[in-house]
Amino acid sequence: MIPQNVKDILSNSENNGLYQTLALLLFLICFLGIAFYVFSRPKKYYDEEANAPLDDDIEDKNS
Asked: Do 19 and 10 form a contact (C-beta atoms < 8 A)?
């Protein structure tokens, strides 16, 4: 029998708990990595980016 979708593949497996645990660990590692990256940036970086739409540089528009 050819499985029709991922649900069919995972429902007939003996290692469902293993796959779910690996997916959770992968998600947590990615989430914590992104959170660490965001919080490790200096606050000055975010202040400059937050004010970028408000900067009105006429010289840049005419160049």
From this structure: yes
Q: Which residues touch 19 (CB under 8 Å, ≥6 apart)? A: 10, 13
Tokens 């200096």: give the residue. 42
pTM: 0.57
Tokens of 31: 């989430």
- Look at residue 52 and give its three-state secondary structure: helix
Reported as a single tens digit per residue, the pLDDT across 5-55 is 777 766 777 777 888 899 999 999 999 999 999 999 888 888 888 887 777
Euclidean distance between CA atoms 19 and 23, whole angstroms: 6
